[in-house]
Amino acid sequence: MTEAIKSNLSETESKKKQVVEYASGNEMAAIAVKQIGYDLMGYYPITPSTQIAENLDIMRANGETDIVMIAAEGEHSAAGICYGASVAGGRVINATSANGLLYAIEQLPVQSGTRYPMVMNVVCRTVSGPLSIKGDHSDIMYILNAGWPILFASTVQQVYDFNIIALKLAEQVRLPVVVAYDGFFTSHQKGKCYRFENDETVREYIGKRKEPYPFLDLEHPITVGSYMNEPDLINNRYQLHLAMKEADRVLPELFASYYGISGRNYGKVEGAYCEDAESILMLLGSSYDTSLEAIEEMRKKVKKAGVATLHVLRPFPAKELSELIGKATNILVADRQDSYGAGGGNLSLEVRATMQRYGSKAHIKSLVYGLGGKDFFKEDAWEMLAWAEDESKPDMAYYGVTKGENKAEETALFSPITKEMTTIHATKVEKNEEGKLKVSGGTLNAVTAMPGRIAPGHGACPGCGIPVNLNLLLRGIEDPVVFLFQTGCGMIVTTAYPKTSFKIPYLHNLFQNGAATLSGVAEICYRKQQKGEIPPGDIIFIMVSGDGGMDIGMGSAIGTALRGHRLLIFEYDNGGYMNTGYQLSYSTPLGARSSTSHIGKTQYGKSFFHKDMPKIMAATGIPYVATVAESNPTDFIKKAAKAAYYAKTTGTAYVKAISACPLNWNDKPATERKVIEAAVNCCYFPLYEIEQGITTLSYEPDKIGKKIPVVEWLSMMGRTKHLQKEEYRDIVEKIQQEVDKRYERLRM
Fold first, then answer.
1. How far apart are CA 692 and CA 62, in angstroms?
2. 149 near 117, Cβ under 8 Å?
3. Quick check: 8 pLDDT over 50?
4. Torsion-angle region of residue 365: left (phi > 0), alpha (psi -120 to 50) or beta?
5. What angle, 0 to 180 degrees and rounded to 10, lies between the N-to-C axes of helices 199-206 and 232-262?
6. Strand partners, 695
7. By the 8 A CB rule, do 652 and 566 touch?
């Protein structure tokens, strides 16, 4: 807010005091959420939106907000949590990005179709694959037809302001509303902005939520989400259409009323120098300010150019946009996404339709730019405007594409690993009289001749347990291997394009669908072998999951196990969503500090026990389940051999390893072997196997005098070191009781 705007405020308005914040878009979103006084946030961590939940958790730990924060096991569930809370009459917030938004997308029309308000921040990011976490607009355009009004913030200040306006809009027209902004540009870059000094100012502006048909009024019960046929369904959609028109009508009123308390004036569209511009550059988000700087320099050279953007993407402000840019001769629409096959991105298509509708004679061109977070500079704005005025340039093209090289032949990074190379007879798997497997060999000395199927070059942190665990797993498997990795640290540090760390076939898919994807690979392999299209022979199909991936991916894994596909699921359990900055996962220990389970005067870390995934998988009836640890390498290798045998002959096998993460466990890489050993010796991570339904402990520390209290293990890591304090004694006792209970069940 400039001094000039401050001086224009009336005496009444000037009472709405504001203070300066130097903050990022995500931080300002969290501040707005706190000031509004939301009841609940359902969320799942995904870069680059996660900082909103992280900042709110800090505020919650410090007693600055009492918002209920529910960490879902995936974005689909997060959307369901938010919907249920909104139906129940709560004020609800969510935040997501990219594939997380797409995973939740079927829930979005449910909420708009039943007309329950909430706000969701979409921190725009590239939709994979291939996987990229950088910012563009390929996610937000997927929800243009979801029935949610969409406000688009170009600056950090607008993120704060639009979050406040969005809730007032949502409750006035009874629709859920999105606040969108650019990932990593607006979300992470800090800037000077203003916020209201007193939370009450924000709450007075928004007012109290009024619920015409309270769901929890048990004396007047209602049904939400009835089954509908025609003509009821089309009437429902018509009412949604009318609600969106109402949003279009009231938005100017809301912008005006917000100006009254803030001094910041917004419209559905914004432009500079458009009134006399012959050529106009039209784009969304953070590129607008960069383009504005470029246009101002061009205007000094007497070039009549202008720039325009939208603050409202839905309902699309066609009339306002045509009034702003309709007089231009040339319009260049720059899209950070493409509607493939439609001749431009969605913004281009909307602008073309608007200009035709309102009779503009402008020559409109479309450039797709900035995909995958590619930087945008003022020189790019100059080139785009030159493109708009050059009749020889096509009406639609990609801007900033790097021309590749034509190579006659490709050179392999590694020599292939053949079956002859891995058949070293270091382990021998046989069935005993009871039909259970017996493994001989498998010692570290015996498997030293096994060639590495993962190259030594990778980007893992020093002390990371993932490469250690993967190499131990593969030392026990002499058959050819095909890998599928779910998203996580293990995938990210090994496959940075154009190189790979894998000397064997490798496939990536997202958290939620890894096991199902690998089952498809395996079944086609078996079919092609039956038809003689590929050589016969055993292949071990291995899905690798970690970084919380067996939370969001649990449904897929259970479905695959129940169907009995012949493959091996390997989970490296590092106790959190590590590749996104260590948010709590369902495998994080009770009481552990993470970026979404802070320690403060009102909370002590994660508030619920870690998930027992091996027992969950065992309940599906698969033939083999095992837990392993690098502290017991021979046991690890032998169990890997067993799991591979069952995976190629019988059905799904599951192996879980405890995996060190020095960065987020907050301990020293050189001590990780001891930390892992302590986790095993305190029985937090007991070593056992469930073979054909029979549970056998493979290591019993209490019988050899090595059992230690769980607090000794907790004290070795910075994330749980606080639990040594007297004030947390009851938490440690709960952990010890739960660990003892689970261990005793294994012994029964």
1. 49
2. no
3. no
4. beta
5. 140
6. 690
7. yes
User: What is the 3-state composition of the chain as percent helix, strand, coil, each rounded to the nearest 5?
Assistant: 40, 20, 40
Is 447 exposed, middle or buried (CB count within 10 Å of its CB: 0-12, 13-18, 19+)? buried
The Cα 340–Cα 332 span in angstroms is 18
> Residue 449 contacts by C-beta under 8 Å, 6 or more apart in sequence?
424, 426
* 261 pLDDT higher than 70: yes
Question: Rounded to an integer, what distance in angstroms lies between the CA atom of residue 501 and that of residue 460?
Answer: 11
The percent of residues in the chain predicted with pLDDT above 90, rounded, is: 89
Those residues whose C-beta lies under 8 Å from the C-beta of residue 575, and which sit 6 or more positions away, are 585, 587, 588, 589, 592, 610, 661, 665
Cβ neighbours of 129 (radius 10 Å): 11
pTM above 0.90, yes or no: yes
Contact 335, 347 (CB under 8 A): yes
Helix axes 232-262, 156-173, angle to 10 degrees: 130
d(Cα 280, Cα 262) in Å, to the nearest integer? 30
pLDDT in tens, 498-525: 888 999 999 999 888 999 999 999 999 9
b/e string for 408-433 if b means 16 or more Cβ within 10 A? eeeeeeeeebeeeebebebbebeeee
Distance CA 135, CA 186 (A): 10
Q: Would you state the structure tokens that stand for residue 503, as one six-digit string?
A: 């000397």
The overall average pLDDT reported for the chain is 94
Tokens encoding 659: 């995996």
For residue 747, report the phi and psi dihedrals to the nearest 5 degrees. Answer: -85, -15
Place of tokens 């090994």: 494
* Six token digits for residue 605: 């870390």
